[in-house]
Amino acid sequence: METTLRGVGVSHGVAIGEVRHMGTAVLEPPVKQIPADEVEREQERARQAVQAVASDLVARGSLAGGEAQAVLEAQALMAQDPELIADVERRVAAGSTAERAVYDAFAAYREMLAGAGEYFAGRVADLDDVRNRIVARLLGVPMPGVPDSDEPYVLVARDLAPADTALLDPSLVLGFVTEEGGPTSHSAILARALGVPAVVALPGAVGLAEGTVIAVDGSTGEIFVNPSDERKAQLEAVAAERRAALAASAGPGATSDGHRVPLLANIGGPADVAAAVEAGAEGVGLFRTEFLFLDDHRNAPSEEKQVEAYRQVLEAFPESRVVVRVLDAGADKPLEFLTPADEPNPALGVRGLRTLLDHPEVLRTQLSALAKAAEGLPVQLEVMAPMVADRADAKAFADACRAAGLRAKVGAMVEIPSAALRARSVLQEVEFLSLGTNDLAQYTFAADRQVGAVSRLQDPWQPALLDLVAMAAEAARAESKGCGVCGEAASDPLLACVLTGLGVTSLSMGAASLPHVRAELAKHTLAQCERAAAAARAADTAEEAREAARAVLSGE
Ligand code: PEP
Ligand code: MG
């Protein structure tokens, strides 16, 4: 009999296939005492396993490229944490086998992270994955990961580790479903980058029996277990309709009555450029520059290295707009040499622009590298700062850009509610705003973006978030300046129409979402988008807002 489950759709498309679970069994090595003369050999085995797993993660990263690379390299750094290795060695010296010592040392580390606050919860899956890989290597058993199958399947997991999602083979993996994770988690961002349908935060996902047929609608978040033939036919028809609309969509982003909304790409580095160009991006709306800083967690990359990476991106978009975000370190992207280690609540601590203002030399080098990279190119370079709280922050950033001799438009990201509430004041210092709706939702609802349990509040359809978007867009309009969205909200086609109706002037998203958003926008007039926006804002919950907008846009 068919049953319906509902999670959060985070990557578009329909997939129908059998459930295969991720190999995430926790390998618990037995407790065994080793003789003293084996300690050194055992310690060496542990070090080698750690090194091999770290190198494997880095290698997977360079194969995957882009944002996946940054995530995998961060995992490799976790594996090589000197304190963790020292703890493993201590445990071996006390008589543990290498595998048991790794298992116990990671458990202690995990507990410490958990005790350090909810913020770390999203990283626990990454940490567990690193542990499982090292233990599997030491035990000589297969690595945990995607199932071994020649037939296409729907991958189901509690949560997907970046190491696995990065290398999923889209020809075998029809889609994926996770019990944990929110719409802005790493897994969701990576799924969209891969272009496979995905639903996260689905209660009961891990209880789905292996081999059960399910239908996944990554646009609505619905999962149909044992779908009836009529259901399959209906979903296939919807998918075919969506595909036809996609195929028909090309050219610049606009509503059906010609109101232009440039559609830009979010990229994590030069590796993401090709997909963005192929998807018809009209430029880059968010270049996350963190990836450059992950290679060496003790030092900033040299100016020359930065110039080279920025130049590769700028050259790919001749005469287009490229918005570069300066380094956003801290909270979910800590950097050892910049991020204070002892903050009780890093998401509310020194991160983003605050970090850069504390380390002006890092900002100076980055801005100077950007100025050099843009020299002689016709590109429209724009730079923006993450985590701007108020006018003083905006001024400090604009001053730094001027001092670096940068010939670029200077902007502020709106990720903190105070910046949306006082957008007009912030706009006295900068030339554009870009709404980072992932963090804006996190701070508006006091809901950690990495914690699946609060994903309800991370939903960008929340009317309170829409109100803040409207405030920022209205302020920008009053100042005759641009206000884009570069958070994940822009990648939801229906929401993209609502954002347009709220007065947002450009939308930036992962390349895979561009055709979906372009096709949806082209179906509606600006007036319809405005009506949908008003209906969504009049709602009390995210679900009601989504339904109200859908009703307006489908002419019901
Ligand atoms: C955001 O917060 O919406 C954003 C675009 O920045 P990031 O996801 O990199 O924090
Ligand atoms: Mg952000």
Automatic annotation (TrEMBL):
NCBIfam families: PTS_I_fam. Its cofactor is Mg(2+). InterPro entries: PEP-util_enz_mobile_dom, PEP-utilizing_PTS_enzyme, PEP_util_AS, PEP_util_C, PEP_util_CS, Phosphohistidine_dom_sf, PTS_EI, PTS_EI-like. It is found in: Cytoplasm. Residues 6-123 form the Phosphotransferase system enzyme I N-terminal domain. Residues 151-221 form the PEP-utilising enzyme mobile domain. Its EC number is 2.7.3.9. Residues 252-524 form the PEP-utilising enzyme C-terminal domain. General (non sugar-specific) component of the phosphoenolpyruvate-dependent sugar phosphotransferase system (sugar PTS). This major carbohydrate active-transport system catalyzes the phosphorylation of incoming sugar substrates concomitantly with their translocation across the cell membrane. Enzyme I transfers the phosphoryl group from phosphoenolpyruvate (PEP) to the phosphoryl carrier protein (HPr). Transmembrane segments: none annotated. Belongs to the PEP-utilizing enzyme family. This is Phosphoenolpyruvate-protein phosphotransferase. The gene is ptsP. Gene3D superfamilies: Phosphoenolpyruvate-binding domains, Phosphohistidine domain, PtsI, HPr-binding domain. It catalyses: L-histidyl-[protein] + phosphoenolpyruvate = N(pros)-phospho-L-histidyl-[protein] + pyruvate. It comes from the Bacteria. Keywords: Cytoplasm, Kinase, Magnesium, Metal-binding, Phosphotransferase system, Sugar transport, Transferase, Transport. It comes from Streptomyces thermogriseus.
